[in-house]
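Lecture 7 notes: from sequence to structure.

We start with a single chain of 352 residues. Read the sequence below before looking at the structure.
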Amino acid sequence: MRVLVTGGAGFIGSHVADALASAGHQVVTLDALISRAHGSGVPPWCQAHRMVTGDVRDADLVRRELRGVDVVCHQAAAVGHGVDPSDAPFYTGNNDHATAVLLAEAYRAGVRRLVLASSMVVYGEGRYACAEHGTVRPEPRRDADIAAGRFDPPCPVCGQQVSWRPVPEDTVPAPRSLYAVTKLAQEQLAAAWARQCGGEVWALRYHNVYGPRMPRDTPYAGVASIFRSALAAGQSPRVLEDGRQCRDFVHVTDVARANLLALTVPPPGGFAAVNICSGQPHTVGEFAEVLSAAMGGPAPQVVGGARPADVRHIVASPDRARADLGFQAEVGFTAGVTAFAGEAQRPPAAAA
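Now the structure, written as tokens:
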């Protein structure tokens, strides 16, 4: 197959391009090389594929590059929570308007298969159970509770302690950040496109992806990259809250393999959203501890507080991806994090 990978110079997109090429597919990458994700110049790993530098919002460019394409792997996006509300035009432009342009041109070009990079952030706060009220959806955490060290959200009905549960894909989305809102909008745009043109879409809801080629030294990076950058500078990783917030850390090579599967497996009903995760939850504190040990650096420092719009626990159910896509992660937590300690990151990216 001939595959267009948008965001193909990026952290995840470059691994997707490599995986597709290794499987014998003809790959073309398209990337705007925006400063918030990239350092200067074209990353060296892009040299293995035909790369086009340009913006997905450029309809003429996209139309030209879609000629002869069978499938689009749409990885291009502005990532991270955003620094403040002034980031809204940047996120909606790069994520939602760009996706709308891509879908319109794919329709005109006769392309009917899309693999979309979505995210766990569409769920908002994760799934919880109350001993008295069963499955509940907590309200956003209050600043006063976080300041007082009360990090776990209470039951919204009785106020008692709740415990987290794996989040299945039929959980009603409740995005809580600029990025999250735009990722959900991407899914909805793609679902509407599939219904209107008889297309097929996999929306791959990535959980906490880590691995080689992550960007360094930027407030838009994920926690794995932030910890790695601190340790490389001889500093302790600063762990927010109490370090016990749970996530699902999935290695980027597993994510790339999920994209490879989505190239040919038909999505049930024409559109399917699935969690791309390891299925093995770990705390943020655990990640920092394993990485610090692997790099021989100072121990993590738990500092309290929380990022605006951040959630307490978000842990994925891997069942639907296994059943519908045939995907199961292969890289174990300790082995993956230990390897990450010595793997190359991309040069520092600009913060704005």
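The mean pLDDT is 93. Keep this in mind for problem set 3.
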